[in-house]
Amino acid sequence: MLQSKLFTRPRKEAPRDEVSKNAALLVRAGFIDKLHAGVYTYLPLGLMVLKKVENIIREEMNSVGGQEIYMPSLQPKENWVKTGRWDTLDVLYKVTDQSGREMALGPTHEEIVAPLAKLFVTSYKDLPFSCYQFQNKFRMELRAKSGILRTREFIMKDMYSFHRDEKDLKEFYEKMKVVYARVFERIGIGSQTHLTYASGGSFSQFSHEFQTVTVAGEDIVYICGKCGTAVNDEIIGIQTTCPNCGESKLKSEKSIEVGNIFELKTKFSEPFDLIYTDENGEKHPVHMGCYGIGPARAMGAVVEVYGNENGMIWPESISPFRIHLISILGSADSGAEVRAVAEDIYRELEKKGISVLYDDRDLRAGEKFADADLIGIPHRIIVSEKLVKASQYEYKDRSADLEKNVSKSELLALF
Amino acid sequence: MLQSKLFTRPRKEAPRDEVSKNAALLVRAGFIDKLHAGVYTYLPLGLMVLKKVENIIREEMNSVGGQEIYMPSLQPKENWVKTGRWDTLDVLYKVTDQSGREMALGPTHEEIVAPLAKLFVTSYKDLPFSCYQFQNKFRMELRAKSGILRTREFIMKDMYSFHRDEKDLKEFYEKMKVVYARVFERIGIGSQTHLTYASGGSFSQFSHEFQTVTVAGEDIVYICGKCGTAVNDEIIGIQTTCPNCGESKLKSEKSIEVGNIFELKTKFSEPFDLIYTDENGEKHPVHMGCYGIGPARAMGAVVEVYGNENGMIWPESISPFRIHLISILGSADSGAEVRAVAEDIYRELEKKGISVLYDDRDLRAGEKFADADLIGIPHRIIVSEKLVKASQYEYKDRSADLEKNVSKSELLALF
């Protein structure tokens, strides 16, 4: 893409009211814009990152047989009354239509997916299965000061699984632990993200979170120095050793919850009468699990881990483009030649199917580099008068902090 | 995909409260489920169709340089007060948060995109550009009886364009007419869909709609017998001849509005002070256009056009799968052989990158064919005991109503 065509551009200064590092950086870089407290617009570069995170999650959900669906935000009050959450869930936004009918703006979808499953489950032969969605959630958060880590409106991937018994649920749940770890590995925060034991409420002994260690975190986790498993704040009082390996040395760190998985068991199948008939004609409630990841929160966690005062270096898997090509035009005389060389390599790279952001703007080198640092594409190619004269390109791998001058054929061979 | 793994299945009967053909068919086929009036869940097969419609629209928007973004649903009241629409737009859902602050649930995004553009537009050099989104809209519709044609919550593609003057807006607007026609052509309703002159309000002489002729339509259009251009109900009183070619014979037809385009001009740039400075240092308001398509409504229009009492035949471009492979297992003896042949061809087709729904279920032929008719995949391959004995496959192109027995190599050569 030609950078001159991009309608957004980096801003000189962070907005004064943006205290979080992730949002301050992403707003400065032109990836997002804050509409009001806890509510953000995703601009072209930001949406590209978000979609890449989503696609990685989608591939992993499909790998365990998850079937993608899309459920509504406008949810009948009756469903929420049935589970007792209409009056108890404090983050629930409520809407009234012209006839005075009240509805919930979905903060989660157990109240919708359980009766949906009832349409298709009668026999043990209909189990197990799982379905998931990427869907906009609404939560009336009191605190909305952590940028895109905690917002009032956000896309969430929520998966729900359905099983004949606790054993089958447990097997799937263990598979999901592995799949979740792979998601965070693929988006670049695998080594900072810990499987964390959390309180399971009244229905399971534990649930699990995935917590990414960073100083911006709102949570605190206690990490086992031996195996890397963690426990969260809620349960450290009752669980003072590593629940995985028994190690007694746990180190506290600030962290961001980037995912969570729950064994819901029959908590939602019972109120909605979601039952199946087994081989002997006996009826049982379906066992459910639920599994959440917020792609935007995960993106925010990546920014907290990889951002610095000058900008970002995106992990290649979720970078908006693979290469940032920058022309340094110099004088009017040399400018035309530099431009021709840059356009030529731009075309060649695009022809190879490599996504390139080409900074073709007529700006000073310093300004272009500052913008490029903010945008954070990991591979950079520079074309300048001096380089063109030597038939060379400057190539920089920013993650590896590697920089070298290369010929055209050497450059093309790198990708 | 193995049909036995799909968690949904066609239902025997249409739901009694579903009066529209599109929703009755899609619910029976297991593509959608009605949560409550005007609010639907998209199930796996339905979401596949919706995503294909979206991708066609996305490709066409990108072809004119549109940049994809994603704006929020929770919108500040102030923005709506500024344009005077807080009190006048009757479909506006309003939400109040815990601090008593009122917000709109976005039914459209002019109130958000105009101040957003203001962040990035100062000079004539920043124009023109266009941006679009696929985003969930909320509209408090009084009538919600046309299935997925008119719902209270729906994904909409809304594009907004920004220009220095009316001439530049007009040029882009004309380009969008062509692009819109191509979208409807690609999703299979090109020949039923007419460019329609509509009322432009106080800001333009005309706006334009794209209307698909079908008996289920809520609208009426008057179509020129000569050039195919139409006028809508609102303006037939003042415009009694074809506004394109002057022809006086116009034929009335029921129709569905599947898209609309407006020249907003300065209606939204003025309240939000969206101005730019020209080459001479003079300031002018930005001229805007907006361009909407509801992918679900377009999908509903396709069902109205292609559906019949037995089910659907999807246009290949938006069919959930390209091929429906059906095994007729017969007796236990022959069943194993039929299954082996069907699995073999399933693997070969998938290896070629062709998407196949393989009905591997252990059901009677009649039941499988009835389900396949409902689901509506255009190409069908049948494997049965008799065919296997003759080393043949039955291939059916349902759109062309063509049926023939072919060998394996002939079959593979068809795709």
How would you sum up this structure, described in words?
- Two copies of one chain form a homodimer.
- With 415 residues, chain A is an alpha+beta fold.
- The first copy, chain A, folds into two domains: 3-71 and 109-306, 2-Layer Sandwich (BirA Bifunctional Protein, domain 2), CATH 3.30.930; 321-413, Rossmann fold.
- Chain A contains ten helices and 21 strands.
- Chain A has helices at residues 21-28, 44-63, 77-82, 110-118, 166-186, 295-306, 332-351, 365-375, 385-389, 408-413; strands at 32-36, 39-42, 67-68, 74-76, 93-96, 102-105, 129-138, 153-163, 193-199, 206-213, 219-224, 230-232, 250-265, 275-277, 283-285, 287-293, 323-328, 356-359, 379-384, 393-397, 402-406.
- A five-stranded mixed beta barrel of chain A has the order 9-10-13-11-12. Chain A has a five-stranded mixed sheet with strand order 18-17-19-20-21, sandwiched between helices.
- In chain A, helix 1 (21-28) packs across helix 6 (295-306), helix 2 packs antiparallel against helix 5 and helix 2 crosses helix 6 (295-306).
- The longest helix of chain A has 21 residues, at 166-186.
- The mean pLDDT of chain A is 95.
- The interface between A and B is large, with 49 and 48 residues.
Name its key features.
homodimer, 415 residues, alpha+beta, BirA Bifunctional Protein, domain 2, Rossmann fold, 10 helices
What is the end-to-end distance of chain A?
17 Å
Radius of gyration of chain A, whole Å: 25 Å
Q: Do you know the CATH architecture of the largest domain in chain A?
A: 2-Layer Sandwich
Instruction: Give me the secondary-structure category of chain A.
Output: alpha+beta
How many helices of chain A in DSSP terms?
A: 10
User: What is the CATH topology of the largest domain in chain A?
Assistant: BirA Bifunctional Protein, domain 2
The strands making up the biggest β-sheet of chain A line up spatially as 9-10-13-11-12
- Overall residue-averaged pLDDT value of chain A: 95
Level-1 CATH class name of the largest domain in chain A: Alpha Beta
Strand content of chain A: 25-35%
- For the record, the count of structural domains of chain A works out to 2
How much helix, percentage-wise, in residues of chain A?
25-40%
CATH superfamily of the largest domain in chain A: Bira Bifunctional Protein, Domain 2
Describe the largest sheet of chain A. Answer: 5 strands, mixed, barrel
For this structure, the quaternary state is homodimer
